[in-house]
Amino acid sequence: MKGRYLCVLLALLLFFCPGCTQETPQETEESQGIMGEALTETLGVPENVQGEFVSESGISRVIVDAEIVVPEIDHVDIIEAIPRVFTEEEITSLITRHEDEIGWYDVHSVEAYKGEMPEIDYSVAGVDMYDLWISNIPFDMQYSRDKDAISEIKERLSPEQAENYVWTSFHVDYGLSAATGKIGFPPSLEYMRSNVSVNMGDLQPLVEGKAADCTISLEEAIAMADAEVHEILPDYELSAYGQMPRYELGNPEQYYAFRYTRHLNGIPVNDVYGGEGMATGDYGYVSGLGVVSVVVNDGGVCLLIYDNPYDVGKTVEKNAELLSFDEIWDIFSRVALLSIQYLEIDENLHKNEMEIYEVRFGYMTVLQADGTYRYTPVWDFYGFRNLAGTGGYTHADEQAVIYGDSLLTINALNGTVIDRDLGY
């Protein structure tokens, strides 16, 4: 729904956004500014930006008091991004590295794993769904991980095996179009090693620099996560960190949580909350954020989820010309309030606020008109939404705060407002 509203807004705003139609970048050596000059100087980027925008009714309000984060670079290239499924090397590497003396067993058949790769499990809407799911439980108890189940598993093992037993699983799934062979459902790879429920969720702030239920330091946890991620993805670096949230029906303990994205020529792919969750919808399949999510406790990495792998293609445009930050801020100033004000149509809404706390420059894999993707520079405005009122908004102000949510994304090349739900 958000995507449709933004499309309407963009149509209204074409008068101040002349580059809103997608253009094919031309390879050029032309530079905005002098090569070697820091991008912050070239684009006139301040350290902090502030502002407030209020609707006539006073119900809708955008409040900005944000740190501006820009990598230490002097130019930006536009590069092809090529979505793919997981390679046999990636799958085998993780499986081999984490196999213990109990071995791997197929979850569906409970037979010993013999090196198979993902196979078609079922088909839906013309998409063949591929699946590989193995664990270190050599009998038909694959779906239970409560304490009683773990105790029963240990009873079936030798004393030596039972003493150090930790439930471990490895799951790969993705969908390919039966007609074209192209990706039709988001590729996801999950490794879990834990005797209690572990779910990533959003990144909650650390408490005095540490995760609530860990004794190891943040630096020690990062080292563990780095080692795991760099084994398969050496160009992915830490983009965000915190601790996993505590849920009533899961995550009984809070461990360190990390998010890794690709970094190209010193520029990170911006991490956004929920960005990996793209799928087939009204507008067709869209490849989501390429990200690795990692949870670490005192015992090491207990959860790793790798979503939406990409290959890096050729450089489409070198040293691309970018809009100044003043131009980006002008676009934000005109569109931010409009992007939330449509909710005022509901008479039950009494407070409708957007609070921006960080503005970050980085890459996004932007969908092109021809169906390809490019690592494209963008500005992400991270913030919180505050809603309150009556009717359906009665308890809106009681909802949990979501960290790392990009509330507005602007193309750094031409000022286009990008809908992350649509990918362009």
Please provide a written account of the structure.
There is one protein chain. The protein has 424 residues and is of the alpha+beta class. Helix content is 16%, strand content 35%. The chain contains eight helices and 18 strands. The chain has helices spanning 2-12, 39-42, 88-97, 147-155, 159-163, 218-232, 325-335, 338-341, and strands at residues 48-54, 60-69, 78-83, 105-106, 119-124, 127-135, 168-177, 183-193, 236-243, 256-264, 267-268, 291-297, 300-307, 310-317, 349-367, 373-389, 406-411, 417-418. Strands 4, 5, 6, 7, 8, 9, 10, 11, 12 and 13 form a ten-stranded antiparallel sheet that branches. Residues 1-35 have low confidence and may be disordered.
- Strand segment count: 18
For the biggest sheet, the summary is: 10 strands, antiparallel
Structural class: alpha+beta
| Silhouette | globular
Mean pLDDT: 86
Could you spell the SSE succession in H and E letters?
HHEEEHEEEHHEEHEEEEEEHHEEEE
Number of helices: 8
Task: Assign a percent range to the helix content.
Answer: 10-25%
**What is the CA-atom radius of gyration, in angstroms?**
23 Å
Q: Pick out the low-confidence regions.
A: 1-35
Strand residue content: 25-35%
Distance between the termini: 15 Å
